[in-house]
């Protein structure tokens, strides 16, 4: 009777093992010394094996489903300029910045034009975003409209070649230091991911300046972007972390869950993923 009860108890702990790994493991160890029968002493070791197997399975599962920004950080390849080459360019969690660039020739395969107001002319590639971000942007603009505000999309996807031209032009006009502060080296622009859009107030369409935050649209964007899966990617006073001055107009799609956490913690993507010590 006692044996049967023990086996039942054991099966119970195996079944709930996933949810209560720590407590059952502890309970099991405390229970073992009270068992005198040899045969039963073997059983707990099976249980331990099961626990170990479960832990291993869980670890394997985690390494494939968890974001790679953190776990593979030290395994990333480094290019000739000392920049890390990200290995998850298609992830909505990808972090591209002045230290981390997209692989050579990366181009999203699902670029579309969201159905929103644009500043750029029809057919301009900067009207494009990846599908998931485009759908979210449409909802963001609808949300603003419902609150009586009109946003306009200024600049979304930017190819490697386009970024290269912008950067080299900036260097030629303003010098290397200025260029590195205000524009991204080719491969390091978040716009190349197809997940970022520069957004302006329809009334002040050409104003991509910090003063955008003083407009009602800028305020609205700061307060509501996360509800649609976007973050203000370069917040004020975080230049040292993001590598960029305040850009209240630059939103980046990361999905609602991460966007909400980043918003609530008033943090940056780098800090959120532990890439900033
Ligand atoms: Zn931007």
UniProtKB/TrEMBL annotation:
Keywords: Carboxypeptidase, Hydrolase, Protease. Residues 17-82 are annotated as: Disordered. Residues 23-32, 46-71 have a biased composition (Basic and acidic residues). Transmembrane segments: none annotated. Residues 127-256 form the D-alanyl-D-alanine carboxypeptidase-like core domain. GO terms for biological process: proteolysis. SUPFAM superfamilies: Hedgehog/DD-peptidase. It comes from the Bacteria. PROSITE patterns: PROKAR_LIPOPROTEIN. One of its GO terms (molecular function) is carboxypeptidase activity. This is D-alanyl-D-alanine carboxypeptidase.
